[in-house]
Amino acid sequence: MKFYSGFSLKEDQCFFDPFLDVSDFTVAGFSYGAIKAACYTAEAIERIDTLQLFSPAFFQTKKESFRRLQMSGYFKDSERYLEKFITSCFAPLPKSPIKFGENSAKALEELLYFEWTKELMETICSKGIRVEVYLGLEDQVIDVEGAREFFLSFATVTSIRKGNHFLQELV
Question: Which pLDDT value is given to residue 170?
Answer without folding.
Answer: 83
